[in-house]
Every structure is written in structure tokens, then in C-alpha cells.
Write a structure and sequence with these properties.
The protein is α/β, with parallel strands linked by helices. The chain has two domains: about 180 residues, Ribosomal Protein S5, domain 2; about 325 residues, 3-Layer(aba) Sandwich (Rossmann fold), CATH 3.40.50.300. The chain contains 22 helices and 18 strands. The strands form six sheets. Strands 11-14-17-10-18 form a five-stranded parallel beta sheet. Bound molecules: adenosine-5'-diphosphate (ADP) and magnesium ion.
């Protein structure tokens, strides 16, 4: 007898339906799984057998063949335990097969029949809903994230026996629900605030612009000038997440297994600051069971690399393409997978080895070749992809002592949110969230300049020796400055501010 049960696999960020087919026939007792299973899937035999026995079912002493279709995609991880078990029970007529048609099942089983949470539940349930599946049964630990998906009944279960009772109609479970609106009402609180940073008005302004438009930013300054301190406060002014952005972020963290248990939706922007000892795969993603790296975990949020030149050269090179395309592509034996990585990139660095090149007080002890070697670690193409360069000067004693009230993060965030709202409204038909995501054609459409501004840009181009890439980036930043100003058009002052954020590379990189 044959039974068929639906489950789901993952390719990159998207799910695809997997049909779990089981055939039970006479012959020597055997248990085979075919359809490109990995080690974890093959080991599910032992878990399935034990879980059945310990849930008072008898594993059939016959020839069992499990096929996971489509056969050309590699099946990874332990989430097929549950569908395989149910298909075997149906094929051996211990439960009725006709009850299984409207369901998708996901979940790892422990030997005693308890269900363990799996990673990637959110994208798999989204896939189920898109394919018209009516119900999904999964481990209770995954129910909160899955319940965010509309148009499908989500049942979180503790163990196999509970599911059987539900399917038989003996003790139906009630679907899990979440109130999505209330999730967004939770205000996050931070221990740090921009009000702690005295002076540094120009850096704070540059950060506000960067955050408002999602632009990449690099801070250059001597040790102790407050670069790390400023960066730590970036999360406090990040704009609120929209529901669509939150769903993207949660999907990635669901796959990476970094979603805290009983979390429905991540509603604050991620802020990732990996140590400089990180490897290239750690940043880009990969592994035997592919996992998103830091670049993707920071999607729709911020990736901050403190002391940028300390990172390995291969690590820095691996960032170039994702920064440009907003996706990471990982090659695997059987094809490639892509993860989104549209993060705002923030970095800090000293201007030279001793740290005091260009400092107004301390003298730099580096020779010119040493300085170029140090900044040379940041290649031209990488630097080109950073829209905003800002110099952090050592804070003046007067500023430190000053009792003058400094602006709080909440005040800055309010302006940032307003500017984001303008962008969301403008790009609502383009599927974009912020200015940093504009393509070349969109730039021509939304960042048009009049003759006066064009002349200014041309002059800057000739004087600063800018690249074509810098041209587009200046326009995007100018668009953000105008949005912060509530201006429909980009005026000279907006453009001039954007150009000024590109003028530092000449000082340090030539
Ligand atoms: N503008 C400032 N206002 C208040 N404290 C500051 C300021 N700049 C630096 N500091 C103090 O100096 C310390 C060192 O700053 P840090 O961010 O570690 O510098 P950097 O990362 O540039 O080497 C901070 O922890 C803070 O106590
Ligand atoms: Mg530091």
C-alpha cells in the first residue's frame, strides 16, 4: 500500500513542496529512504522507528521504501521525521490516509515521540500557504513564527500522539494565532543614547542621513575619538520596520536558527557587529547545511565592522558583490543558492597604524608608505561602495565639559522615521524601501537635477576625480538629504552635503 504526505524543503530563502511517499510491501524487513537525502534525513529512520514504538504504534516489519520527491533536490535536516512517520502509519493502515490530504507536516522527532523545533519554519509555511495547503502541523516551538502567515491554519504540537488524536478527530487541536499589530507596538529600550555623545555634530548628522536612506557609512578617526561609541548608538535611531521588511528579516533568522524561541516576528532592525577574526564563509554564509552569514543576518538592518583594516583581505573582498547587488550567492556542489543581504554597511577605522595621521593634537609617527599600506587594505572598489565617508575628530575638552543639552536618540529617530515614510510612499509601486536601493534607472527617475545642480556635480566630479559609481551614490544620498528636509526636489544645498560626504577618500587614499 502507498501513502503520500506533504512536507517542505528549502532552497535559499524559499520553500518548495516535498512529497513524502511511502510504499510498504512484502519481503525481507528493510527501511530505505531515497530522493537525495543527506545524513540527517537518512538517520531519521532510527528516530522514526523509536518514536513510533514509544507512541504505542508498531513499526511494520516489512519492506518500507520512502521516496522524497522531487528527487533532483537535496533534502537536508531532520524536519522530515514527522511526515515520514505519518506516511508510514497511513501506508500500514494504522491511521486513515484520507485525513492527510489537506495537511503539510514539519518536525524533528525525539526517540520518545516528542517534537523538536526545526529551522526555516517560517519560509516553509509561507510556501505551504502559497501552494494552497489548508493546514500545517509543526512543533510547538515553531508555532509562533508560523502563525504570522495568513490564510493557513497552523497547529503547534508537542508530540506525535497528540497529532494522531487530532487527525482521528478524537481530540482536535486549536489553531495558533498571533496578533501581528500588537507585535509592532512593543517599543524597544536601549541602555545607550546619542545624548551621551558630546559634540561630534557632523558625525551625528552623517549617521542620521545614512540611517534615513539606508546608506553605507565609514568613520575615520584617531583612537579614542568615539567611533565605537557612536556606532553602538546606531540601533537607537534605526527607522521602524515595516511588516514586509520584518517578514524578510524573520525568514532569514528562521533559516539560520537564530530566532529566539516563541518569537513570532522580529520587529526591530538587526544590528550585527562581528569580530574581525570572522572568516569569509562566516560573513557570506555557507556550510554543509547552508546557513546565511552575517551579511544576510543583517538584512534590512546594519552590519557594523569595527576597525575595518583588521579584517582579513578575503573577508573584505567577499563583501564587495553583496554590497552592490543586495544578495549573496553561495556555490554548492549541486547548484547555487542566494540569500538577500540588503544591509546598511557601517564601518570604522583609524587613518593609519599609529592612529594619529591628520590628528590636530598628536603627531603621527608613520611614514607615508606605512600610511598608504594601512589604508590600502581597504581597496578602491570597496571604498567606492561606501556612500558616506566621515571624519571623526577627537572631541574637544570644551564639548566634553559643556552642560548644553544634546539631542536624544528619540528626537533623531523621529526625523529618520519621517524621511523613511516619504520614501515608502514614493516607492510603493517599485517594491523598494529606501533610497539606497535605487537602481540606475530609478535614480534617473527620482533624483533628477536642474541645470544649476548639474553644474555643481560636474565641478565636483572633475575636482575630486570621482568614479561613475560615486556619481550614482551621491545622487542617492542627495535624495535622502532632501527627504530629511521634506523637499520634493533636490536643491543645491542637498547635493553639496552629499558631495561633501565623498571628499575624504582624497585625503587618505592618495
Ligand atoms: N564625544 C564624546 N562624548 C563623550 N564621551 C566620549 C566622546 N568621545 C569619546 N568619548 C569617550 O571615550 C571613550 C573611547 O571612545 P571609543 O568609542 O572607544 O573610541 P574609538 O572607537 O574611536 O577608538 C568612549 O567610551 C567614551 O567614554
Ligand atoms: Mg573603537
Amino acid at each position: 500500500m502507498i501513502a503520500r504526505v506533504k512536507s517542505c524543503g528549502l532552497s535559499g530563502l524559499d520553500g518548495y513542496i516535498v512529497d513524502v511517499e511511502v510504499d510498504i510491501s512484502m519481503g525481507l524487513p528493510a527501511f530505505d529512504i531515497v530522493g537525495l537525502p543527506d545524513t540527517a534525513v537518512r538517520e531519521s529512520k532510527e528516530r522514526v522507528r523509536a518514536a513510533m514504538k514509544n507512541s504505542s504504534f508498531a513499526p511494520p516489519v516489512k519492506r518500507i521504501t520512502v521516496n522524497l520527491a522531487p528527487a533532483d533536490k537535496k533534502k537536508e535536516g531532520p524536519s522530515y521525521d514527522l511526515p515520514i512517520t505519518l506516511a508510514i502509519l497511513a501506508a500500514s493502515e494504522q491511521i486513515k490516509a484520507q485525513n492527510l490530504g489537506d495537511y503539510m507536516f514539519l518536525g524533528e522527532l525525539s526517540l520518545d515521540g516528542q517534537l523538536r523545533p526545526v529551522s526555516g519554519a517560517l519560509p516553509m509555511v509561507i510556501c505551504a500557504a502559497q501552494n494552497g495547503v489548508k493546514n500545517v502541523v509543526l512543533p510547538r516551538g515553531n508555532a509562533d513564527e508560523a502563525a504570522v502567515v495568513g490564510g493557513i491554519n497552523v497547529f503547534g504540537a508537542d508530540n506525535l500522539y497528540q497529532i494522531i488524536k487530532h487527525l482521528r478527530g478524537d481530540e482536535p487541536m486549536t489553531p495558533n494565532t498571533v496578533d501581528v499589530a500588537s507585535l509592532f507596538n512593543v517599543r524597544s529600550s536601549y541602555l545607550v543614547d546619542f545624548a551621551d555623545v558630546k559634540g561630534q555634530q557632523n558625525v551625528k548628522r552623517a549617521m542620521e542621513v545614512a540611517v534615513a536612506g539606508g546608506h553605507n557609512i565609514i568613520m575615520i578617526g584617531s583612537p579614542g575619538s568615539g567611533k565605537s561609541m557612536l556606532a553602538q548608538r546606531l540601533p537607537t535611531i534605526l527607522p521602524d520596520l515595516t511588516f514586509d521588511e520584518a517578514l524578510e528579516v524573520t525568514k532569514i533568522h528562521s533559516i539560520a536558527g537564530t530566532l529566539p524561541e516563541h518569537t513570532s516576528l522580529l520587529t526591530t532592525r538587526p544590528f550585527r557587529s562581528p569580530h574581525h577574526s570572522i572568516s569569509a564563509p562566516g560573513l557570506a554564509g555557507g556550510g554543509t547545511i547552508p546557513r546565511p552569514g552575517e551579511l544576510s543576518l543583517a538584512h534590512n538592518g546594519v552590519l557594523f565592522l569595527d576597525e575595518l583594516p583588521e579584517f582579513g583581505r578575503d573577508v573584505l573582498e567577499v563583501m564587495r558583490q553583496p554590497l552592490e547587488d543586495g544578495v549573496v550567492t553561495i556555490s554548492r556542489v549541486n547548484g547555487t543558492i542566494t540569500y538577500p543581504s540588503r544591509a546598511m554597511f557601517a564601518a570604522s577605522m583609524n587613518p593609519c597604524r599609529c592612529g594619529y595621521y591628520g590628528d590636530s593634537v598628536r603627531e603621527c609617527t608613520c611614514t607615508p608608505p606605512q600610511i598608504s599600506k594601512y589604508v590600502g587594505k581597504i581597496s578602491g572598489p570597496l571604498l567606492d561602495r561606501i556612500d558616506i565617508h566621515v571624519e571623526v575628530a577627537s572631541v574637544k575638552y570644551g564639548d566634553l565639559e559643556s552642560a548644553e543639552k544634546t539631542e536624544t536618540s528619540a528626537e533623531i529617530k523621529e526625523r529618520v522615521n519621517k524621511a523613511r515614510q516619504i520614501q515608502l510612499e514614493r516607492y510603493k509601486n517599485d517594491g523598494l524601501f529606501c533610497n539606497a536601493q535605487l537602481s540606475s534607472s530609478a535614480i534617473r527617475k527620482y533624483c533628477a537635477l536642474s541645470a544649476e545642480e548639474k553644474a555643481l556635480l560636474r565641478a565636483a566630479f572633475d575636482n575630486l576625480g570621482l568614479s561613475a559609481r560615486a556619481h550614482d551614490r551621491i545622487l542617492k544620498v542627495a535624495r535622502t538629504v532632501a527627504d530629511l528636509d521634506g523637499s520634493e526636489r533636490i536643491h543645491t544645498a542637498h547635493l553639496a552635503e552629499a558631495i561633501q560626504y565623498r571628499s575624504l577618500d582624497r585625503k587618505y587614499w592618495q
